[in-house]
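== Item description ==
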Amino acid sequence: MSQPLAAAATTAGPAPAFALGGDVARPARLSVCDLSAWPQHTSDVSFECATSGVQHHRFTGPLLHDVLMDAGPRFAPARRRDRLRFLIAVSGADGHRALLSWAEIDPDFGQARVLLAVTIDGTPLDRSGPQLVLPQDRCGARHVSGINALRVDGGYSTWE
C-alpha cells in the first residue's frame, strides 16, 4: 500500500471523511488531513454561479488523478482503451452529485487538473470536508462541496 493510503488506513482523522470505493484495489476513507499527505497543487479558479454570479477563489489540494491512481483503479494501465470505460462519480453531503470520465483526468487524454481541495482562499476545509474543483469548467456546477463519496466504476452495463 502506498504512503498516503497507508496513513489514511491508520490515522483517525477528523470527521468528515469520504468513502473512496468502487473498482479500486485499495478502497479508503479519506479526510482533509489524509489528502494533505499528497503533493499539493494550487489553482486560481473563476466560475459562474447561478445564484451569486462570477466567483473567484484559490483552491489547494491533491490532483484527483493522483489520489485515484494511488487507490489502484482496476484497469490495465498500459491499455489506453481499457481506461476509457471508467467513470468517476462524486457526491456531496448536501446531495449534490457530479460525474466525470476517466479520460478527462488522464494525462494521455484530457489531462484536466481536477483537485480534491483541502483549502479555499487559504482556509482549511477540515470542518466541511474536501471539495471537488474543476478549474477548467466555466460553470461551477460540477464543483462538489463536502464530498462524502467518490466511486470509480468501469463495470456499468453496456448499452446493447
